[in-house]
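cache lookup: miss for this entity combination. No prior model stored, computing from scratch. Input as submitted by user K.M.:
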Amino acid sequence: MAASTSQHALISIKPAAPAASFSCGKRAGNARFVSATGCCPGSRKFGLVCAANSQSSVIEPVHLPSSPESGSTPKKSGESALILIRHGESLWNEKNLFTGCVDVPLTPKGVNEAIEAGKRICNIPVDVIYTSSLIRAQMTAMLAMMQHRRKKVPIIVHSESERAHQWSQVYSEETKKQSIPVVTAWQLNERMYGELQGLNKQETADRFGKDQVHEWRRSYDIPPPNGESLEMCAERAVSYFKDQIVPQLVAGKHVMIAAHGNSLRSIIMHLDKLTSQEVISLELSTGIPMLYIFKEGKFIRRGSPAGPSEAGVYAYTKKLAQYRQKLDGM
Amino acid sequence: MTAAAATAHHAIVSTRSTRLWNAKNSRFDKNVCLVSVGSCCPGNRKLGLLCASGSQSSVTEPVQQPSNGKGDHSPKKSKESSLILIRHGESMWNEKNLFTGCVDVPLTPKGVQEAIEAGSRIRNLPIDVIYTSSMVRAQMTAMLAMMQHRRKKVPIIMHNESEQAHSWSKIYSEDTKKLSIPVITAWQLNERMYGELQGLNKQETADQFGKEQVHEWRRSYGIPPPNGESLEMCAERAVSYFNDQVVPQLTSGKHVMVAAHANSLRSIIMHLDRLTSQEVISLELSTGIPMLYIFKEGKFVRRGSPVGPSEASVYAYTKNLAQYRQKLDSMVQ
């Protein structure tokens, strides 16, 4: 099937692991998400135009393409896109310090990674953005969206106080329609690293012993002193995802999440039903967005959208092909 | 002020009309604009004096004392701190010509570039603490500007919104803390809140309220738009914050950068330069061009705008800043 072939191209497996075919139903040992070249081999364009009803959440009322009758969308064709982006290099990554929830910004490299990620998602619809309360994830989202073709403006929602809420009100309906709300949530923060935060790897090994540190970094449920285990991180990240984000997807909204290594792994563990063993070895590329399609209550992984210079399928579903065509026609 | 410094001032402030910075009275005579300028000082003079007296301990890291520095003997007279003001660059609503106010919209690629440019101009100036508003366009501007700072300290945003936020953001290494620059976000430094004009374009607004009314809101000092702030109200909370929080830092010798918005910065400059409400209305601040003040003996002395790296001229305004620059030059990166 075309879909499983595309999965092969996307997931690069570590040499030591058993050669495995990765398809939606099975799981390979030790799988890694790494930078992928083409989304699909060859240069097949997915050019089908869907004559069926378009989702009103994908297409703005003012920009309807000629065919659809928006009133009668059969439930079956409802699908939403979920994009996950891990932020790139931070100033403490560069210095090799444990970061956790310390709010350090991106390096120039991290900025470029965000811009690159943006190029890959510029044709994928985004209705709402979720990010953590840390600037490196927020900047990543903003920099990525700078090149989005739909040209909607991401606006950070402020509800930390009554005044913050009042002061950020928008008074034009037209402007609101051209906006993408950005919701910041501590629950999407990086795993909190407790007393390791700010230490370099040598200091930490000296202070606590090399094996102990390895255990904290690689175990699922053993937290560093005053910190979170990956399990604890997953608990609050996945709860938030289920409570806040899934309802958006169910309502047909296209969602982007810009967050961190561990909070995203936690969510992927949930989406792909990974075991704790599998999630420990899951590594997410920075700056390479991951795409899931949410359809009929299920999450289907669609790997990573191709960069603009890569020949390949540029849409994974008829809906996304339509969306792309609409952008082309604007 | 020496003659040289006064000359420097003239060169820095480029005026739209014939109105000039009046160095004697330390005020603007009329309609002045702070705009992008060429060099800080005419000619190719380098301020190469090495100060043999004690260096400020707040400028110099204990581990990085220059050879002749004796940290303890700073005579009060030489104590000074720098204050850098940066206005963020183009936002996505600037580009669309919409009234923004306190709506939290991000920078455009141009605005990102402006922040990076601003950073190249301040990379040799010491910075110990950064203040910014609660809006991402000012925060991003600060972070992007600091990416090129030569001292290579890491700006870290302070979180006090809850007990958890505070405890989760703690740093457990003293060395790391020393190489950090705290970044404090404050709503009091936000842009002027534009009330019911937020999100409207200029045409919509003129249609809805009438052209003259809108002009009055935009250009008056004391008249707020519906449910919004007047410039006076913005100034009240921005300057209070500045006096309560920022000045004590400067007094204790810390070097401060403030990354904020047109109206909150105008308010602060109005206070620093003792402008009248008439003068502040016509004050326009360049985006991406940082403004430098030296705080010394309780007074703010404007030093215009630090030059970009490719411009030949004086690169430091005071002996202390010259020393700081030399220290950076001698540090092995």
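stored under new cache key. The two ends of chain B are 36 Å apart (CA to CA).
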